[in-house]
UniProtKB/TrEMBL annotation:
Superkingdom, natural source: Bacteria
General function of this protein: May be involved in the biosynthesis of molybdopterin.
Record-given protein name: Molybdenum cofactor biosynthesis protein B
One GO cellular component, as annotated: cytosol
GO biological process per UniProt: Mo-molybdopterin cofactor biosynthetic process
Domain MoaB/Mog: 11-155
Entries under PROSITE patterns matching the protein: MOCF_BIOSYNTHESIS_1
Similarity comment: Belongs to the MoaB/Mog family.
Length: 173
């Protein structure tokens, strides 16, 4: 008998000065992907690209025992107000260096050298895993399909991040 996937509780944050619920295709794509995978959406929010606003929301979710995963979209580039990495990185207990590396590897096959402008990152804080993706819908698809679908699946071997945030497991699985 196949092992059942253990659903995770996920919060999604869209970082944008211009998006609304009606125009937030990237955040909605993440919600659809996580729901189709069998996970639970705890909350979805949109905030402006402001270091302190982003940091406050992510910190609140890190402190909330009902949130096991935070996924952000937007604010990871190099334009003037892109500030998601600066907002989130100081909150992390451990950085997942391989997340950004793997994302850029996958993204490079799609957009070539432009992928070097992605400052996406991942990390762990207070038994919560955090992934910061670029704001394009394509980048969210790449991140989900190429990394997050497996790493948030408790059945993925040899290891996954799901088993680090499931309280009764607390290990790689």
């Amino acid at each position: 008998m196949a092992e059942a996937m253990i659903p995770l509780s996920i919060a999604v944050l869209t970082v944008s000065d211009t998006r609304t619920e009606e125009t937030d295709r990237s955040g909605q794509a993440l919600v659809e992907h996580l729901s189709e995978a069998g996970h639970h959406l705890v909350e979805k929010r949109i905030v402006p690209d402001d270091v302190y606003t982003i940091r406050a929301v992510v910190a609140q979710w890190i402190a909330d025992r009902n949130v096991q995963v935070v996924i952000t979209t937007g604010g990871t580039g190099f334009t003037g107000r892109d500030s998601t990495p600066e907002a989130v990185s100081v909150l992390l207990d451990k950085h997942i260096e391989g997340f950004g590396e793997r994302f850029r590897q996958l993204s490079g096959d799609e957009i070539g050298s432009s992928t070097i402008q992605s400052r996406c990152l991942g990390g762990l804080a207070n038994a919560t895993v955090i992934f910061c993706l670029p704001g394009s819908t394509g980048a969210c698809r790449t991140g989900w399909d190429g990394i997050l679908a497996e790493q948030l699946d408790s059945r993925h071997k040899p290891c996954n991040f799901a088993n680090l945030v499931i309280p009764e497991r607390g290990q790689h699985g």
